Backbone:
């Protein structure tokens, strides 16, 4: 199975979302165990007791590791003003430079001092040997891929799918109401300027047997141009293949003709977003939703949850003859 748009492991603790998706396809349990290289060494992610002991050539137990991390963390930073300061406050210089600095620069295309501290909300360290990348109750990958699941969701008498069909605002009068999940700024013709996005390029390779022995290998060194390599046969261990395909993943600024993968949300972007939200709130026949429509980074489970909630909200408002709200995000639902 090939993940054309990059690796997607479904993970959630929301039982309603999990049950909804399982109505449309069978999931196989899958635990994502990510590795990373730094200066020709391989380490376990997220940073855990194994990582700490590997990196410092120690044999700490959890209590000793906590004391060690506390001793190397930068205690002089009381109120972190950016991502770098937040990371230094949490884990100190060595772990920051090994596992955060280079990767973050490549992923976001800017210095970590330009990113908000809020990106790193909590201590990114586990003081045990748990290397499960996610901590959600349900984790898996569809047996037949995501395409049949989407096809099943769309297989409804009230749904008409038009492929390779553009949409122009002039067509809005043909419909009672529109749910817009395209780019928020695109709807308004980029009148206030373009919101910043990152896009991804994937360089595909084929090889005999195995290539790297794991599904995902990050590359923390800034000198390595790609952020990670994913080997897709490891996402579906129930399949058997003599050959393998793997992808080098490159992150860069999103151009006009690129696929926008995730929002940057720097200070300038947030100011611009406020202008577009003000415009969106003036719309009466449009509801802006989803990652692109609300300019947010959202995992698959959150996106599905919001779609289900929004659908119910719109139906309830229509039945009650209420004015349909135009801009939805999770705090409003």
Residues:
């Amino acid at each position: 199975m090939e993940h054309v748009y990059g690796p997607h492991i479904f993970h959630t603790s929301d039982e309603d979302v999990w049950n909804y998706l399982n109505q449309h396809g069978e999931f196989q349990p899958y635990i994502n165990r990510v590795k990373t290289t730094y200066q020709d060494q391989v380490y376990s992610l997220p940073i855990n007791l194994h990582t700490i002991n590997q990196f410092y050539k120690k044999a700490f137990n959890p209590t000793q590791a906590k004391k060690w991390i506390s001793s190397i963390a930068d205690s002089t930073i009381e109120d972190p003003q950016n991502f770098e300061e937040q990371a230094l406050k949490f884990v100190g210089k060595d772990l920051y430079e090994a596992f955060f600095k280079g990767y973050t620069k490549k992923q976001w295309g800017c210095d970590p001092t330009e990113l908000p501290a809020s990106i790193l909300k909590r201590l990114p360290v586990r003081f045990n040997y748990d290397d499960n990348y996610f901590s959600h109750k349900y984790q898996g990958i569809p047996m037949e891929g995501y395409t049949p699941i989407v096809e099943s969701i769309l297989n409804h008498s009230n749904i008409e799918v038009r492929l390779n069909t553009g949409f122009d605002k002039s067509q809005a009068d043909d419909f009672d109401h529109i749910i817009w999940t395209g780019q928020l700024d695109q709807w308004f013709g980029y009148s206030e300027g373009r919101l910043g996005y990152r896009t991804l390029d994937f360089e595909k390779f084929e090889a005999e047997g195995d290539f790297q022995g794991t599904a995902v290998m990050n590359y923390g060194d800034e000198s390595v141009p790609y952020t990670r390599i994913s080997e897709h046969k490891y996402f579906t261990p129930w399949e058997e293949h003599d050959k393998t395909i793997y992808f080098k993943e490159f992150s860069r600024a999103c151009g006009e003709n690129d696929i926008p993968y995730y929002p940057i949300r720097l200070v300038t972007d947030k100011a611009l977003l406020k202008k577009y939200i003000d415009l969106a709130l003036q719309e009466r026949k449009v509801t802006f939703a989803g990652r692109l429509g609300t300019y947010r980074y959202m995992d698959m489970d959150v996106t599905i949850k919001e779609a289900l909630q929004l659908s119910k909200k719109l139906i309830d408002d229509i039945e009650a003859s209420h004015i349909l709200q135009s801009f939805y995000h999770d705090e409003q639902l």
